[in-house]
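dumping this here so i dont lose it
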């Protein structure tokens, strides 16, 4: 164990403690561009937010009693059965302070409504709906994940800790057809053609893959409740109440009784009941963009109604938030619109404050200064000015993450958590949870159970987690990190600032590759002489004197803020 400690101390030294041999720039004089970001458009909170994304079934098992309901069995291919993660396990980790220690602002969990009961076996092995994207009933919590009461308790626990909750919303498709899960009526879904992604039509009016029925989101024709769903509700004794609730919704809103508006009503009900803070929209580009503006309008009204009836449960004034998965959207170019080839669509004009940034995982291979400069240009005065993005290095369905072998886990944390824009931590990024599992097929590799045992047993994992925690707490305490204007102050060792003006001004100074022991960091025009700064990495405080600050620590990184 002592050898491990020495090994990872060496890793830290190599990552942060080795001084660069690059020549210093003329910016060593401390001259800094005075232009700073102002908190307009999307709030600085969401521009800077740290969102923790987890698979509900793979994070924490709070109760073994719900591990095998509905006749499901643990007989799927490797990592393709339900593994036991549930809402009560998530609640326990919230209450223990795991997310607060990591500086998490919001938790995004995979869908928790009821999934298909059966399984598929189409090339990847026997697979159940453990991931949450194969909906059967949008109005019920899947018993593998727990109960509605446990769902409510989880949200209350998060709010009590100052953490927001994002619900993953799927309106594009139902779950696949199985021996015990029939296809929905033709008035609701199409089962062909399969998307070829050549243009708008072949991306939207089609099924993502074979045997994944596509909701006819373009339709305004009135539809009846699918027979299978009606029979299920009748057996559960709630058919009459569900019909009455639908009648009230359509009468009040005047919306057509179309397939998409039924599902919108069902997902917005969760906001109205429990105060969900926002939606992450799955497969957003595979529907007509304007439907998301419709959903946003209803969700905002539901959120405001919940807040009025539950004063004090949420301690800020942030509005309802939506972030979209527009696969392939990324930072770069001179437009924020997404191109389908034959047309461009601006999803930000259709209800979204933020979009997931698919570019960061590759951009993270650039030097710190280059990736930070690219994102600063796009977000401050560029095409993404006044909107937000969500950067990530790994995800549940991205087979080409930044660091598939987890050999660069310290660097990954530094680049992600210090980059301009919002960030998504995928569960286990902070603990080097493996993304390659021998014997697993396809996306299952990315979805192993959270490696809690490594935190308890391995000094290397503890050291890595502490690194991510320090970065996360620094980011959470200083909105300028993600929402401010970036300015390089010194090339070698690398020092930069971020500055945010407006109602809640904030400034930070960061130094990387500084070496261990005593180090002098120039502050440029960021902080005046006499300012006392806190180093969020070492915990020390230091006063600015003669345009610089001196920190003596065992780390090659400093994270300075007032």
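and the seq i came up w/
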């Amino acid at each position: 164990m002592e050898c491990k400690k020495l090994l990872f101390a060496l890793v830290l030294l190599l990552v942060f403690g080795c001084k660069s041999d690059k020549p210093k720039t003329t910016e060593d004089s401390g001259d800094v561009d005075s232009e700073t970001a102002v908190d307009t458009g999307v709030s600085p909170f969401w521009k800077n937010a740290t969102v923790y994304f987890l698979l509900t079934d793979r994070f924490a098992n709070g109760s073994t009693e719900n591990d095998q309901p509905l006749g499901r069995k643990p007989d799927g291919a490797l990592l393709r059965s339900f593994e036991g993660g549930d809402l009560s396990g998530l609640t326990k980790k919230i209450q223990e302070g795991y997310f607060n220690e990591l500086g998490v602002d919001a938790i995004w969990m995979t869908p928790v409504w009821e999934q298909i009961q059966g399984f598929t076996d189409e090339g990847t092995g026997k697979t159940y709906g453990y991931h949450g994207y194969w909906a059967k009933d949008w109005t019920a919590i899947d018993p593998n994940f727990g109960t509605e009461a446990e769902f409510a308790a989880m949200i209350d626990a998060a709010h009590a800790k100052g953490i927001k909750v994002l619900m993953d919303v799927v309106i594009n498709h139902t779950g696949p057809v199985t021996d015990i899960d029939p296809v929905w009526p033709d008035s609701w879904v199409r089962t062909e053609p399969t998307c070829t992604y050549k243009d708008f039509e072949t991306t939207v009016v089609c099924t993502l893959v074979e045997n994944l029925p596509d909701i006819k989101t373009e339709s305004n024709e009135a539809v009846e409740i699918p027979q299978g769903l009606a029979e299920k509700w009748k057996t559960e004794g709630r058919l009459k109440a569900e019909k009455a609730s639908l009648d009230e919704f359509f009468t009040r809103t005047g919306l057509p009784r179309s397939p998409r508006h039924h599902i919108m009503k069902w997902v917005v009900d969760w906001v109205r009941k429990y105060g969900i803070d926002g939606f992450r929209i799955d497969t957003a580009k595979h529907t007509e963009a304007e439907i998301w503006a419709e959903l946003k309008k209803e969700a905002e009204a539901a959120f405001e109604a919940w807040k009025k009836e539950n004063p004090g449960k949420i301690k800020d004034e942030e509005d309802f938030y939506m972030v979209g998965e527009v696969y392939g959207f990324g930072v770069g170019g001179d437009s924020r619109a997404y191109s389908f080839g034959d047309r461009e669509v601006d999803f930000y004009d259709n209800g979204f404050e933020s979009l997931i940034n698919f570019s960061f995982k590759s951009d993270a291979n650039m030097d710190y200064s280059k990736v930070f400069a690219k994102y600063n240009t796009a977000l401050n005065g560029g095409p993404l000015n006044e909107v937000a993005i969500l950067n990530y290095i790994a995800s549940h369905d991205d087979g080409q993450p930044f660091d598939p072998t987890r050999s660069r886990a310290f660097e990954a944390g530094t680049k992600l958590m210090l980059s301009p824009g919002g960030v998504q931590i995928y569960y286990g990024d902070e603990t080097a949870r493996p993304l390659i599992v021998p014997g697993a097929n396809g996306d299952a590799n990315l979805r192993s159970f959270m490696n809690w045992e490594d935190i308890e047993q391995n000094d290397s994992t503890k050291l890595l987690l502490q690194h991510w925690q320090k970065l996360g707490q620094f980011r959470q305490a200083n909105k300028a990190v993600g929402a401010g204007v970036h300015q390089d102050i010194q090339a070698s060792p690398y020092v930069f600032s971020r500055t945010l003006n407006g109602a809640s001004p904030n400034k930070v100074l960061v130094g990387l590759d500084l070496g261990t022991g005593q180090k002098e960091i120039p502050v440029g025009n960021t902080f005046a002489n006499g300012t006392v700064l806190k180093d969020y990495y070492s915990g020390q405080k230091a006063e600015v004197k003669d345009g610089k600050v001196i920190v003596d620590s065992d780390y090659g990184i400093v994270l300075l803020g007032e």
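The two ends are 37 Å apart (CA to CA).
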